[in-house]
Automatic annotation (TrEMBL), chain A:
Keyword tRNA processing assigned: yes
UniProt cross-references to InterPro entries, sorted A to Z: tRNA_splic_suSen54, tRNA_splic_suSen54_N
Organism the protein comes from: Champsocephalus gunnari
Protein's name according to its UniProt entry: tRNA-splicing endonuclease subunit Sen54 N-terminal domain-containing protein
GO cellular-component term (any): tRNA-intron endonuclease complex
Keywords: tRNA processing
Polar residues: bias regions: 176-186, 201-210, 241-257
Biased composition (Acidic residues): 213-226
Chain spans, region Disordered: 176-264
Annotated Pfam families: tRNA_int_end_N2
GO BP term (any one): tRNA-type intron splice site recognition and cleavage
Domain tRNA-splicing endonuclease subunit Sen54 N-terminal residues, every copy: 62-128
Record family assignment: Belongs to the SEN54 family.
UniProtKB/TrEMBL annotation, chain B:
Molecular function GO labels: ATP binding; ATP-dependent polydeoxyribonucleotide 5'-hydroxyl-kinase activity; ATP-dependent polyribonucleotide 5'-hydroxyl-kinase activity
Species per Swiss-Prot/TrEMBL record: Dissostichus eleginoides (Patagonian toothfish)
Domain Clp1 N-terminal: 25-118
Family assignment from sequence similarity: Belongs to the Clp1 family. Clp1 subfamily.
Protein name per UniProt: Polyribonucleotide 5'-hydroxyl-kinase Clp1
């Protein structure tokens, strides 16, 4: 069929059959697509460039204007139903039916992008109001920004030509992560839906048709529940977590000796039977060392007594009875060697000697450790060295108090201005946006042989189509799409007029190895 | 050294292959003998024939043979006189009349007086810190005093702060142990349910801040125990310390005295330390200077290292390597979190304003498992396997046990460990020690 003769009459169109010689001529034509060559970014006003452009343009024009020759037997008749935005097949479908189209109510349908692609391939002839549509008509009628954008079709066609299987993505067909985690068998409802690949609403959220709208709202509800389920599943480990800190805190409480009266460790617990009824909180100094005689070689130097009386046998193991002990010979044996000290150490010694605690009257007044420590604390407090006041007394203080030691990793987290995030972190709570959506499921070419439309399996990737003119997807959109897609990678197909480039965002961990 | 004593060497009841030597000891004398150190050394057997004798405070049973292996340095003391037989050829063996045992016994008597008073007045018993330079017999004095205390029916607590030569657990730890029976003549105190904290190195100088922190932890837990356990409270505690008595080591001693609120400090053979402590500790603390025993021998570096190794081996294989059968299994890196306590020191000029070097010493630094982990001893912290919250308690959490990494496979991210218990690990927070142990036997 030719692009040019769209105004021809019905009868004439049907009867346009080529003669053998014309057919041969059409067959032997070169089918090469002109090479586009390097891209020129700036017009440099040179004749050379202009000529080159003109030549290339002419080549393209001539290619488009060429009459296309199709085999009548291959053509499947179809009708365009604009109200529903689909194409209904009138004659039995060809081989393409294995991977494209869907049936509903005993009829066979094609999505507009599929129909357009098949038209371009010369497999389908679409009629509207009893008139055949040219490819140009197809582009005009099938592609609306509200249903199927040109870019989306470009990506569709591009992938199809490369051999991939491309299907519309339907959000509800994706099992929720919750169901996946539970390893639920696919629900009957869902399975039924997949058994017959029902017509799904056009990828766009807004659809003119009421039925489609109903369906889409139903889908959305389903999606919502999925979302909730997703949140629940997010909540589960969280609640688990909220339990564990409690237990761990009690555990650490038992482990850390800091809290008194709390839970006690095994080490403190044994022999509780002999628990004392009363224990003075602060042990007063009650030892009368004048009556308790230690064999102190140091002090006996000053005193006269050099003989220890024999200790009370009842104090000794096995009720030993030992005689007196002469201390004198031992005195001479004590290690008296002088310790070599550096001048710095000697200075410190001098300093200490001046602050003899046994001469200190305040210290003398203390009768036990508790009082002594209080005194020391009071003295410490008096000359507590303040930290840099200009840093800490203002309204704005440093991010971290260096006296609180925390692991370097935590510290780095603390000072990180831009927080790193995982793709799926918090994604379940994001609302789906209209601006970004997944358009297609893409399956690999080598799956064509055993591909079933009723059970397509897990797609290879999912396509989100956007344009170079449009905005770059923000983190929110990326997260939301990644969540919607589950464990299938989302690829962004970016269309720059005719050129399509593919981008994807992958989770990766920045190295956080902080150990030297 | 005056070596007197009636020494009659008579060959009676010859044990096949072993020389038997009989020693008759007068009252208040001791027989000292040393067994050669090294591999494949003939063990020495000791038998009490008549009278009564004790080894470091533990009484000997009559007609029972006690075996001592390589490197053992033993003193058999008698209060009333006895005769013993030695089987085998010791490196040195002599009788000495010159022992400070009477002084030690008097010290015990004084402590026992304090315990009586504590019992009467419903107060806590004496807390004793034993200090002194290296190789003066601190551990022996501790053992002696504890054994005497147990023998008169007390339940004292041994607090082991000597991270180099721990008598309770593996080296690199500080620990506390309730003593309920006298030390076994061969094995020492039976180690049942000690309270152990991870220090990670054999000298307190590597991280003095952590050392002091752990001392405080032990003191706190001990005090809590005293509150609920009257007997432990009256029994008091005996604190064994490191031989480091200068600079920070001395400060650590003062800190320990304050943390435990000690009542008595026994200074062994170091007059200067005695005077310093007398000056720096408050007046109500009794500081006592005691002589060291003439039998104390200086241990070489190698000897200390061997004892450390032996202690770790004992942890896994039991006394003399025969009683326990450790397990060996693989642990995935992803299942455990390994930390080192104390960040490496950085120059002061690189530190933020107002921060001092000490602040990094208590930091937990995650350790990336690698081949250099091999042979390191790891402590299994009893801290819950929580996330952030629990991490703060790791330093102050006691240790449930130790494992040794015997092999690291970086390919499969798995390490093989030697463990006293079968898998799985009770907890998944591991603390790395500087100490390494090669399972060579």
């Amino acid at each position: 069929m030719a692009d040019q003769n769209k105004t021809d009459t019905d009868s004439k169109f049907y009867n346009e059959v080529l003669s053998p010689s014309e057919l041969f001529a059409a067959r032997s034509r070169s089918h090469k697509i002109p090479v586009r060559g390097q891209k020129d970014f700036f017009p440099d006003d040179s004749d050379e460039q202009r000529q080159r452009l003109e030549q290339s343009l002419n080549e393209h024009w001539s290619l488009i204007s060429e009459e296309r020759v199709e085999k009548l037997g291959n053509l499947v008749k179809a009708t365009w139903i604009p109200s529903e935005n689909i194409v209904e097949l009138q004659s039995p479908a060809g081989k393409f039916w294995q991977t494209m189209g869907f049936s509903a109510g005993g009829k066979q349908f094609l999505f507009p992008e599929e129909a357009l692609y098949l038209m371009e391939c010369g497999n389908v002839q679409v009629f509207y109001q009893e008139l055949p549509l040219s490819i140009q008509d197809g582009y005009e009628k099938f592609l609306y920004s509200s249903t199927l954008r040109l870019q989306e079709y470009q990506v569709f066609g591009h992938l199809k030509r490369l051999g991939y299987l491309v299907h519309r993505f339907h959000p509800s067909s994706e099992t929720s992560s919750y169901a996946k985690q539970l390893n639920l068998p696919q629900s009957r409802d869902r399975a039924g839906k997949q058994l017959k690949r029902k017509r799904s609403a056009s990828p766009t959220a807004t659809s003119s048709h009421t039925e489609a709208q109903e369906e889409s709202t139903a889908d959305r509800m389903e999606e919502d529940t999925c979302g909730q389920e997703g949140q629940e599943d997010k909540k589960l480990p969280e609640s688990h977590l909220t339990i564990s800190p409690e237990t761990s805190s009690t555990q650490t409480a038992t482990a850390s000796p800091g809290n008194k009266g709390g839970v006690r460790t095994w080490w403190m617990l044994d022999d509780v039977g002999e628990r004392s009824d009363h224990q003075p909180a602060s042990a007063a100094s009650r030892w009368d060392f004048s009556s308790i005689s230690f064999p102190d070689l140091g002090s006996s130097r000053e005193r006269v007594s050099s003989c220890l009386v024999s200790p009370d046998p009842s104090l000794l193991p096995g009720a030993l009875a030992v005689g007196v002990c002469d201390v004198d010979p031992w005195r001479t044996r004590i290690n008296l060697r002088d310790v070599k000290m550096s001048s710095k150490e000697q200075m410190r010694e001098e300093e200490k000697r001046r602050h003899r605690s046994d001469k200190d009257r305040e210290v003398r007044r203390c009768s036990n450790w508790a009082e002594y420590r209080q005194l020391m604390e009071r003295r410490q407090g008096r000359r507590s060295k303040g930290r840099a006041t200009h840093l800490w007394d203002g309204e704005v203080t440093p991010l971290h108090d260096p006296r609180q030691p925390i692991p370097t990793g935590e510290l780095l987290d603390k000072i990180s201005v831009i927080k790193s995030t995982h793709l799926l972190e918090g994604a379940s709570r994001l609302q789906a946006s209209d601006e970004w959506r997944i358009s297609f499921n893409v399956y690999q070419p080598d799956t064509v042989a055993d591909f079933k439309k009723s059970n397509p399996g897990k797609p290879y990737t999912r396509m989100c189509v956007c344009s170079f003119d449009g905005p770059v997807p923000d983190l929110r959109a990326i997260k939301q799409l990644a969540f919607q897609s589950g464990d299938v990678l989302v690829v962004f197909a970016v269309v720059d007029y005719g050129d399509i480039s593919f981008y994807t965002f992958k989770d990766f961990q920045l190295p956080t190895d902080v150990f030297p | 050294m005056a070596t007197e004593g009636v020494e009659t060497t008579s060959e009676e009841v010859p044990v096949p292959g072993k020389v038997s030597t009989r020693y008759d000891l007068e009252k208040e004398t001791e027989l000292r003998f040393e067994v050669e150190s090294g591999e494949a050394v003939e063990q020495i057997e000791l038998e009490l024939l008549t009278g009564m004798a004790e080894v470091f405070g533990s009484e000997l049973n009559r007609n029972k043979k006690y075996t001592f292996g390589a490197g053992a340095k033993i003193a058999v003391f008698t209060w009333q006189g006895c005769s013993v037989n030695l089987y085998g050829k010791p490196e040195v063996a002599y009788v000495s009349k010159d022992t400070p045992m009477l002084l030690y016994l008097n010290t015990h008597a004084a402590l026992e007086q304090m315990r009586r008073q504590a019992e009467r007045d419903n107060e806590r018993g004496p807390r004793v810190m034993v200090v002194g330079p290296t190789d003066v017999g601190k551990s022996t004095v501790c053992r002696l005093l504890l054994s005497y205390a147990v023998r008169v029916g007390r339940r004292p607590t041994l607090v082991e702060l000597d991270v180099g030569q721990s008598g309770v657990s593996v080296p690199g730890t500080v620990s506390a142990l309730c003593i309920e029976r006298p030390a076994d003549v061969e094995e020492g105190f039976s180690v049942q349910a000690p309270l152990v904290y991870h220090f990670g190195s054999t000298t307190p100088g590597t991280n003095i801040k952590l050392y002091n922190k752990l001392t405080s932890c032990l003191a706190e837990v001990y005090s809590q125990r005293c509150e609920v356990n009257r007997k432990a409270s009256v029994g008091g505690c005996i604190i064994n310390t490191c031989g480091w008595v200068k600079g920070s080591g001395y400060q650590a001693l003062v800190h320990c005295a304050s943390a435990f609120e000690v009542d008595v400090v026994l200074v062994l053979d170091h007059e200067r330390l005695y005077n310093e402590l007398k000056r720096d500790l408050p007046h109500f603390v009794r500081v006592v200077l005691l002589p060291k025993s003439g039998g104390v021998v200086e241990r070489s570096k190698e000897c200390r290292r061997d004892t450390r190794d032996e202690k770790i081996r004992e942890y896994f294989y039991g006394f003399r390597g025969v009683t326990f059968y450790p397990f060996s299994y693989e642990v995935r890196f992803s299942d455990v979190r390994i930390y080192k306590i104390g960040a490496p020191s950085i120059p002061d000029s690189c530190l933020p304003l107002g921060m001092s070097q000490d602040d990094t010493q208590l930091k937990l630094v995650p350790v990336t498992p690698g081949r250099d982990l091999t042979y390191h001893v790891l402590s299994v912290s009893s801290a819950e396997d929580g996330e952030e919250g629990a991490r703060k308690g790791i330093v102050e959490s006691p240790v449930c046990g130790f494992i040794v990494v015997t092999n690291v496979d970086t390919q499969t991210q798995v390490m093989k460990v030697l463990s006293p218990a079968p898998r799985p690990l009770p907890r998944h927070t591991l603390l790395i020690m500087d100490i390494r142990f090669m399972d060579s036997k």
